[in-house]
Amino acid sequence: MRSILPLVLLALIPACLKAEIEIEDVTFTELRSESILMAVELRAGRNSDSKDKYFSDVKVTVFASWGDRGQTDPASLKFYRTAAELVAIEMNDTATIPFILSGAVADRDELRKEPFAYYIEIQIGGEVVPFSPDMVSNNIRNNADAIRSIKQRAEGEDGKANDGLFVPYYLATFGLENANIRSLPFFRRSEIQSVFE
After folding, report:
1. Angle at 126 between CA 62 and CA 147, to 5 degrees
2. Where are the beta strands (DSSP E) in the chain?
3. What is the mean pLDDT of residues 5-19?
4. How many C-beta atoms lie closer than 10 Å to residue 46's C-beta?
């Protein structure tokens, strides 16, 4: 998404102009299964369409790179992508979207609990929410080239090779175990839709 390039313009945006949906928090937890849980907490503001108090068809896509434990070489990074779609979120409400990276993969590849970097993209009704600093990890927050690179590599061959290893929690074969998840929303299940096609 090339529109993220002029990050310096963010400083010119008045604090009162907030996105309709913002990222409240991003946390990482190692589950008992050794899987890595990434929890993305959203907060909905006011809907610009005052006739509707809900935001519908909210899609959250994560692009992330994990490094090996004890390794600092960027060449060792592994890229992943995943996505989930909420049916709706009410204005002034919160919703937490849990994503899980396979414990077998994390153990086999000796991955750190937290990724090297991540970028989160939000869409509402198919429209991409404008970029804001809370969508990326701190270490690349002011680096437009790094943000563009992580998305491109996660969408490219590097990421496609790992498709299905980093998934929304409902596609994992176990529960959320020791995770402290609040405000769990209802998700649109694309694999159910495909049954009727």
Report:
1. 35
2. 21-30, 36-44, 54-66, 78-90, 94-101, 117-124, 127-128, 166-168, 187-188
3. 41
4. 11
